[in-house]
Amino acid sequence: MTIETDRLRDRVAAELLRTRERTTLLTEAVDDGDLVRQHSPLMSPLVWDLAHVGSQEELWLVRDVGGRDPLRPELDELYDAFKHARRDRPGLPLLTPVEARKYVAQVRDKALDVLDRARIDDGRRLVADGFAFGMIIQHEQQHDETMLATHQLRAGSPVLAADPPPAVIAPVTGEVLVPGGPFTMGTDTEPWALDNERPAHQVDVPAFHIDRAAVTNGQYAAFIDAGGYDDPRWWSPAGWDHRQAAGLVAPAHWQRDGDGWSATTFGRTARVTPSEPVVHVCFHEAEAYAKWAGKRLPTEAEWEKAARWDPATGRSRRYPWGDETPEPRHANLGQRHLRPAPAGAFDDGASPLGVQQLIGDVWEWTSTDFTGYPGFTAFPYREYSEVFFGPDYKVLRGGSFGTDRNAVRGTFRNWDYPIRRQIFSGFRLARDA
Ligand SMILES: [Fe+2]
């Protein structure tokens, strides 16, 4: 065994542990009634997410990588996300909270045993660089963010607490010019990148301007005050239909408060902070705001070029600030704070061109449909991303305050329906040069 392999094992074990601590926090913050309850038809009961995390870990790490016998084969179907829509999950014969906790702990013991004994370089692509472990760690982290979104939809007194995000170092306004020309989009080298981030390929992006910060609550409130929700000129036909049918008048969780707005965040209601990025808006709202503001949403390629392209070297970096793994000084990630940070709070996370907070705070809607890059191959299974390719889903980039530092990078792609806003979604603006 090489030192490198030892180091990879240590890293995997540490990440598994750190991630499970967050899962435990999210599932122990509420009582059993809240764990089995469905807080929104858009979400699973928290106890489903918990056992599903264990079920995927069992399938990939214990059975596939480890070649071990199934612990609970009868659970496979119950916790297969493709077999049961979220709205139907409360009616399933799910494990109770006690059973689910016991199951995930048993799976974890086996997975750690596999990690100790498995050859991390057995020649299989699934195992190279610890990919299967990285995939399962990211999967649990993604469900942690989903469970955090469920917490936001839960009624009742607050159960989560965190320090407020850092204050503004220097206010960030305006836009930067990103020169036209090719850049490398996607990756061949990021070891834990998922199939849809691959392969690396050249994309020629015409010059464009992009805002240095995401659209803030204050800016968004001006759109509402200007009658933006009542004027079909700003909305696409599909967006206007949805705005009418759903009765949208403001971001989710906002309420009128005198001549301003309050928002309820994890059970606490307070005036919205004008300098924080707006969150819980759908793609249609983002698109309408952009049109009203005389701009547009960035394409996915524009977003990634703004985030990764280094004009000094022409190289694409892992993150806007360079190749260094995210530290707290770079970005608001990992539920360290329970809200996005104001524009200008993360000077150290800026891109070479001075675009800020691309990573963390809020997922940013792009104008691009979710599709495979040229040369895409599904790995390790079609259901990870390929089955979602097509015009139904829009790409979101950059992660939110609820995204783990492992589960986002300059190449990471998220996707959702253009009407969804239970996710921690915001946006920034761009325009042609
Ligand atoms: Fe999942």
TrEMBL record:
PANTHER family from the UniProt entry: HERCYNINE OXYGENASE, SULFATASE MODIFYING FACTOR 1, 2
What EC class does the entry list? oxidoreductase
Query: Which organism is this protein's natural source?
Result: Paractinoplanes ovalisporus
Instruction: Return the InterPro entries for the record.
Output: CTDL_fold (IPR016187), DinB-like (IPR024775), DinB/YfiT-like (IPR034660), EgtB (IPR017806), EgtB_Actinobacteria (IPR032890), Sulfatase_Mod_Factor_Kinase (IPR051043), SUMF_dom (IPR005532), SUMF_sf (IPR042095)
Name the family the entry cites.
Belongs to the EgtB family.
EC no. given is 1.14.99.50
Tell me what this protein is called.
Hercynine oxygenase
Alphabetized, the UniProt keywords read: Iron, Metal-binding, Monooxygenase, Oxidoreductase
Instruction: List, for all copies, the residue spans of the domain called DinB-like.
Output: 16-147
